[in-house]
Amino acid sequence: MGSTQPTFTNPATTSLLELVKARRTHYALTGESPISDDAIEHIVQSAVLHVPSSYNTQTSRVVLLLKEEHRKVWDIAIAAMEGLVAAGAVPKEMFETSTKPKLNAFRAAYGTVLFFVDYDSLAAIKEKFAIYADKFNPFALESNAMSQYLVWTALQSEGLGANLQHYSPLIDEQVQKQWNLPASWKLDAQLVFGTPSAAPGEKAFAPLEDRFKVFGK
Fold first, then answer.
1. What gap in Å lies between CA 101 and CA 121, rounded to an integer?
2. With contact defined as beta carbons under 8 Å apart, do 158 and 43 qualify?
3. Name one Pfam family in it (predicted).
């Protein structure tokens, strides 16, 4: 957030940074999309193919759920939370007044992208580079997070709003069963998306000088 606007050699750089600024968390979403399902699929596929990973391990696994299939994942989440209420682990009043309306809002959206990491696929690289073996799982999560951010930003660019959720491990077993997914796929995050029906909340920034330093300029 410098005081002057720099000049870039490639105009696409300015466009990219504007997209980064525009990406926001949208909770008020409708079950509609301004773009085709094929366009959404292409965005997600591009992230799977082109987001980098440590040693090109390609550990991210992604499932795109649209329309009725999307609603199923939030039915799973609602049922799981109802089980916690029945077990006395979650207060019924809190579930009815807060949690359930929130889950129903996710359900009312157009789609969900499920992001997984296949840690089992790292066995060979961990053996080859044993001295760094404990680093590869965090590296895999970092790659997965980049995929989440890219998909989120691209969807925002196409007129879709999104919010990122983390309901693991609560829904993991039923998600795996519902879509017959490999046991080695470990769910990390759920990106809910749809057409925004309200503006996002205000975004506050901590002082940049507390978070960024430059040397040698």
1. 38
2. yes
3. Nitroreductase
71 assigned to some structural domain: yes
Confidence check: pLDDT of 150 > 70: yes
pLDDT tens digits, residue range 3-49?
578 899 999 999 999 999 999 999 999 999 999 999 999 999 999 99
Residue 18 within a domain = no
In a domain, 95, yes or no: yes
Strands 161-165 and 60-66: unpaired
CA distances from 124 to 121, 136, 142, 166 (A): 7, 11, 19, 29
Note the pLDDT tens digit of each residue in 62-92: 999 999 999 999 999 999 999 999 999 999 9
Dihedral sign of CA atoms 58, 149, 117, 79 in order: negative
**Total domains, the chain:** 1
CA distances (Å), origin 63, targets 15, 66, 143, 187, 206: 28, 10, 16, 10, 34
- Residue 85 CB-half CA count within 13 A: 16
- Asked if the structure places residue 121 within a domain, the reply is yes
Residue reference for tokens 């809002």 = 105
Domain ranges, residue 54: 26-197
DSSP characters over 53-87: -GGG---EEEEEEEHHHHHHHHHHHHHHHHHHHHT
